[in-house]
TrEMBL record:
It comes from Cristinia sonorae. It comes from the Eukaryota. This is tripeptidyl-peptidase II. Its cofactor is Ca(2+). The keyword ATP-binding does not apply. The active site is at residues 288, 292, 485. Residues 1-17 form the signal peptide. It catalyses: Release of an N-terminal tripeptide from a polypeptide. It is an enzyme of class 3 (hydrolase).
Amino acid sequence: MLTTKLIVLSLLSFAWANPLGRRALKLHESRATAPDGFVKTGAAAPDTKIKLRIALAQSNPQGLTDALMAVSEPDSALYGQHLSQQEVDAFVAPKPETVAAVNEWLSENGLTAQKLTTAGNWISFEVPVSKANELLNTQFAVFKHEDSGEESVRTLEYSIPANLVGHVNLVHPTITFPNPTGQLPVFSIPGKVPTPAVNLTSDAVPASCANTVTPACVQALYNVPTTKATQSSNVLGVSGFIQQFANQADLRSFLTNLRPDVPATTTFTLQTLDGGQNPQGINQAGIEANLDIQYTIGIATGVPTTFISVGNNFRDGALEGFLDIINFLNGEASPPHVLTTSYGQNENTISSNLANELCTAYQQLGARGTSILFASGDGGVAGSQSSRCTNFLPTFPSGCPFMTSVGATTGVPETSAPFSSGGFSNVFAQPSYQSAAVSRFLSTLGNTNSGKFNRAGRGFPDVAAIGDNVEIAFQNQFGLVAGTSCSSPIFASLISLINDRLIAKGKSPLGFLNPFLYANPQAFNDITTGNNPGCNTNGFPAVSGWDPVTGLGTPNFPALLAAAGAN
């Protein structure tokens, strides 16, 4: 009898010493299998360090959405009256009881978290895998991507204390996987380089633009003026990831040859985070970074441009760079009025909770007056260049309804580029601003590809721009690149030029674009030919009106300027 009592007391003591003994745990997120192409190779080493990030429940997320739409819908009485950082933070800051509950749990486990955002809705701490397994009642493993050989420490499910349900939105990285199939644009050297700059004396598009796209071609296609911008507050931000560096010497060569009316000394400002840098060795120049910088500075004449280089000061990262750059900009007193990003990944690799958190972060920046644009992807309906699919693969963040997704066209006259990713989100519902346009498309489509996509999902892209045979300077050479990563900086540049005119008139920048864009379909060149094949199908067709290949179409700058009241 005495021995039995001692055993019971010993078990009780262990339960009180072990946090898992005190707290009932509840499954929080899970996925049935790893994304296609990943294979589990074994358990993660117990002493491997992992940086866990926790997204805390926000106090009023619906209030943020309502506020964003109120300042973004052209017929709203509050249109253009963007919010302050403090006003936005008030919507997403966790409630005191949420902070207290999470801190108590961490304290019980000997942990202290660091705040990652000004609102305090993201926190982080670093632990060995053994501790992460204990905290989340899971088993982190090593998953290898077969094609690239890239390894990631992930799990297929995890739990949190039951009393934290409603306080914790997600823990990351857990069930979100990286996207090794995403590729940079391919650089090819044509026979004649560089193409001489064209002096535009009429509205005609030079015949050479059918094979080689230069800044002059963009100006001719979309009637973009060469007039220099005047407003120093009107900053255009360019995202840089995965050790892609923007080279100053290549930019000088690009301007000298393809924008000779712009001083060759024109340059950009550098911001860095997560150990980011921008070394200037010619062999360190990046194709993507050069493309993005050359076609923002080369099109948005005179607009102050900032290259934001995000380093790799995080372990085992998938979307840490996306999280960090948006949190970084949300923490700035004066974020850029436009942000263009030429990176993304397949939506099915990402936890839906994480996708929603990032989408909320885009809402925060949009409510403050920033237009956020992303390339839609380069794999047609197969998403981010993946051929192994049966159902169509939407890309992220293009499925988020609070950013602007940019598809691609090719040729003169323009037709849809076959690589232009587009489709319908499986995470985000169709927003009201596009419901009429999408309904018309679905009616035209009929039963084609029925069952391969989510007819109720958010449709993308929203717009398009030329994205094929685009000439850049790269490592002391001129050559051609292709991809929606060409299209996003081009469209972003036009928005920056409109913002310049608006600010000069004492008006607000456009901010979150989509309600304005869908309210003004007449401001676009409708692209009605081509499709975006993938998954062993022809994908979606480009049709009259909006379609999930080129969106509303390509921009007509004077018409957009007039619609914005900036002419």
